[in-house]
């Protein structure tokens, strides 16, 4: 069974201290150790000229024409797993259109000379400047880092009511950056100030939670861009998540029919950001999967929050 990202195909992103912004509970689930070593931030648009170039680049036309990023990865199931899946299909859930909210928005970036879209969430942090998204929205996993990374809070039909925010640095887990491990498909962008304000100082942010009990009810958000959606409006799905028993990942799945472009959109549980739209299985219709936010992802977030 092939695996796909939530980027091109169906399935399905207030200034506080880090201690106030992060919730923790039970010990991390097995399989969250990741690859050794502290994640490091990749420089993006730092100088005033670099920031201006990014803002000028993302015209309304470029934003409208940017596409969900394609996946290069596949995940095989055993014959017994595939047969079990055929006997027990999973039902999807229809996404509901929402009024855009300033703490969530659309992500734009370039890779290999092409313009791409994802979704993201303004996240409470020490620096007040973090956007949480999918790892494959900041790095090819493995491969190059994104360039011209921008975040548009509350994007709607080409409009940017809170402006276009540029990234000064990007960071993802070593496990994603080095080997494309979907258990750790999470990325963080550290944004420049805009009009003298930090991102969460201007639009607010979600607290982020790690090492929480698995299961429960989540609401996932994003800007799906592949048919039948057009990427210009904001959508959500709500439901109870399940463990991935199909391909061996440590992720959780949420029934939802959001499509490519929703990658990186935030999963909210009990008011906290606790996962992102990451990938889907081609043989499982209308279910999106998101990584478990354990200690490795928490460490990567801490790097971003303190950068």
How would you describe what is shown here?
There is one protein chain. The chain has 307 residues and is an alpha+beta fold. 17% of the residues lie in helices and 30% in strands. The chain has one domain (3-305): Thrombin, subunit H. The protein is built from 7 helices and 20 strands. A 6-stranded antiparallel β-barrel has the order 6-7-8-11-10-9. It is globular. The model is unreliable at 7-34 (pLDDT under 50).
The name CATH uses for the topology is: Thrombin, subunit H
* Bulk shape: globular
Strand content: 25-35%
- What class do helices, strands and sheet pairing give? alpha+beta
Name of the level-1 CATH class: Mainly Beta
Helix content: 10-25%
Number of domains: 1
Give a count of the beta strands, DSSP E runs of length 2 or more.
20
Order of strands across the biggest sheet? 6-7-8-11-10-9
Uncertain regions spanning at least 5 consecutive residues:
7-34
Q: What is Rg? A: 17 Å
Q: Give the integer mean of the pLDDT values.
A: 86
User: Number of helical runs?
Assistant: 7
Oligomer: single chain
Q: What is the name of the CATH architecture?
A: Beta Barrel
- Outline the biggest β-sheet: 6 strands, antiparallel, barrel
Protein name: V8-like Glu-specific endopeptidase
Signal peptide: 1-23
Keywords: Signal
InterPro entries: Glutamyl_endopeptidase, Peptidase_S1_PA, Peptidase_S1_PA_chymotrypsin
